[in-house]
Each structure stands twice: as structure tokens, then as C-alpha cells.
Design a protein that fits this description.
alpha+beta; 3 domains; outer membrane lipoprotein receptor (LolB), chain A; 13-stranded antiparallel β-sheet; single chain; 18% helix; two-stranded antiparallel sheet
């Protein structure tokens, strides 16, 4: 750092971030004016630091350098876009990179977010409590439709509860995701029954896993299949046979980071369902598609999911996520 003082502040910040510690094919120096302070070579049409492929990067720290591997510049671009949207919400119409960098320095620098401060856990490690009103419309091949309205309370990927309020015959029915299990309470039989991720939700073309906010990264291994001009195609392969789908592909818009469409495959590699994501809306600080259309490729039936409302809440009672409390 004494040799290249212009890197010092950047290195100190990155050193405190989460970093991969594996052997890897290269690295990225993240700082301004890097060409002036770091020798570069041209390889494969790209400017790179002259580090051999596959070499462990630990020795670089002895020279005051740090390899910061978080899935490359694509992920850093996501961070930049996130801060840009925050500044836009704060009234900065066209944030410059200098403003984005300063906001990061002021608000996300590790030294400004001590882990002993309770506000860090409230604002940075927020657990995601929200309530939502969802409408489901199942379109059958005979021309009939059935509609359901479900009110959800969600804490995280392992804790989600839904109460059916329409139609009248379904009122009182409940569904609960608790860790890797999904349970339902049926008023007519007054029984609590465990159901599978891959089972149909409310008799439609969405599965329980599609609706009950499964932690996909826990069950699937993700990779970028294609990097298109305006979209990424992300492929997710199931880690075990217990996953609801053997494979999924998701098209993500680069500008908004929102999903555009999603394909679902069985263990034979056959396309079984397709989901189209519609208009994106914002509720407070939550931005997501407000309409999803799921098509069963085999039966040619379709189901819609409409997000009518979403609200962040401070706390959801623990009692809401207890199996034996269903129906009470």
C-alpha cells in the first residue's frame, strides 16, 4: 500500500467485505485510475493483471493487493444500480458515479456500520417481514375460471403463512411454510395436513413452491447460462431429487434486475411449465412484478397471480408460524 497509496482506501473497504477464498482464474482491481497504478496486459481482448490462471491469490495480500471475487463486475454493476435507485428515490434524478460512490462511502462503508449498533440489524440485516394480498385466477380448458384471494404474512424464505378469504367456500383455509415443510388446514375436515412443494396451489398451475416463497438457492445451484445484451439467462439445477423442479431457467432484465420469464423442467429435461412476469410495481420499498401468468405446457391450462397489495411490517407474531395453531 505504501507503493500504491491511491489503492489504500479502496483496499481497506474491500478487505472488510465478504470474499471468496478459493483458487480462481483471475481477479479484478477495483479502484479509480487503475491503469496508472497497476501494470496490465491484453489477453483475450481484455485488459487483465498479469496473474497466472489458477493461482491462489493469498500471496497478493503480501504486496498490498486484494482479489475481490464476487461473481465479477456484473454483480458490482447490480450494487451500482441499487444505489442509483436509492438516490433516485431520494430525489436525485440522474445520479452520477461520483454521487453513487459517495453514497456508498457514507452509508455502506464497514466502519460506518458497526455490528454492535442495533440499527444495523434493523436496517441492514432486515428480516423481510411483510404482508401481501394475492389474487389467483385459474383458467381451465373448458372455459371456466375460479378465483381465490389469499392474505399472506411472510417473515423469510422459511416462514410464510397464507389465509384464504375468497371464495366463501374456502374461507378459513390456511397454508403454512415452516422451514422445508408446507402444511395446510382445511376447515371442512378440521385437519392439518402436510403437502408437497410440487403439489398444485389452490388447484391451479402454480405449485406450492411457486407461491410459498421457497429459498431457491438452498435447493438449487445457479449459474449464468447466457449473457444477452439486455438480459441474463440464469439456469438453476436441483441439488436433490426432492426439489420441486429438476431445472429452471430465468430471464432477468439487466436494467431493472426483475424477472421477465421462467421455464420449468422435469428430470427428463422436458419443459413442463412457463411463467411470464408482467408489469413491475413498487409498494413502499418493495419492487416486484404485479402479475404472473403460469402456463402448463402439457395441459395448456393457465393460472394468473395478481399482487393487489404489499406492506412492510415491523413484526409478525411467532405464534403465526406454529403448525398446531393452524385453524385456531
Amino acid at each position: 500500500m505504501e507503493t500504491y497509496p491511491e489503492f489504500q482506501n479502496t483496499i481497506k473497504v474491500l478487505f472488510k467485505q465478504m470474499r471468496g477464498l478459493s483458487r480462481h482464474a483471475g481477479g479484478v482491481i477495483i479502484t479509480e485510475n487503475s491503469r496508472e497504478g497497476m501494470p496490465l496486459i491484453k489477453a483475450g481482448g481484455e485488459l487483465q493483471t498479469p496473474w497466472p490462471e489458477g493461482v491462489n491469490f493469498r500471496h497478493l495480500e503480501e504486496f498490498g493487493l486484494l482479489k475481490f471475487d464476487i461473481l465479477g463486475l456484473g454483480t458490482l454493476r447490480m450494487f451500482e444500480n441499487c444505489v442509483r435507485r436509492i438516490l433516485q428515490k431520494q430525489g436525485v434524478k440522474h445520479p452520477t458515479f461520483k454521487q453513487i460512490k459517495q453514497w456508498f462511502w457514507d452509508n455502506l462503508h464497514p466502519d460506518n456500520n458497526p455490528l454492535t449498533d442495533p440499527k444495523v440489524y434493523e436496517n441492514v440485516f432486515w428480516n423481510g417481514n411483510y404482508t401481501g394480498i394475492f389474487q389467483f385466477i385459474n383458467h381451465r380448458t373448458d372455459g371456466t375460471t375460479t378465483e381465490y384471494e389469499v392474505h399472506f404474512q411472510t417473515r423469510d424464505a422459511d416462514h410464510s403463512h397464507g389465509s384464504f378469504v375468497r371464495p366463501e367456500r374456502e374461507k378459513g383455509r390456511e397454508v403454512l411454510r415452516l422451514d422445508d415443510e408446507i402444511w395446510t388446514f382445511v376447515p371442512g375436515s378440521a385437519r392439518i395436513v402436510r403437502i408437497a412443494d410440487r403439489d398444485s396451489f389452490a388447484g391451479g398451475d402454480f405449485s406450492n413452491a411457486d407461491v410459498m416463497r421457497v429459498d431457491w438457492l438452498k435447493k438449487y445451484k445457479a449459474m449464468i447460462l447466457k449473457d444477452l445484451p439486455n438480459q441474463w439467462i440464469i439456469e438453476m439445477a436441483a441439488k436433490t431429487s426432492e426439489a420441486p423442479y429438476a431445472k429452471m431457467r430465468i430471464w432477468v432484465d439487466k436494467k431493472s434486475n426483475q424477472p421477465v420469464q421462467q421455464h420449468f423442467y422435469d428430470s427428463k429435461g422436458t419443459l413442463i411449465k412457463k411463467c411470464l412476469y408482467g408489469e413491475v410495481k413498487t409498494w413502499g420499498s418493495i419492487t416486484r412484478p404485479a402479475r404472473l401468468e403460469m402456463e402448463n405446457v402439457i395441459t395448456r391450462q393457465k393460472s394468473e397471480l395478481k399482487v393487489l397489495d404489499i406492506k412492510l411490517v415491523g413484526k409478525i407474531p411467532d405464534s403465526r408460524f406454529v403448525v398446531n395453531n393452524l385453524g385456531k
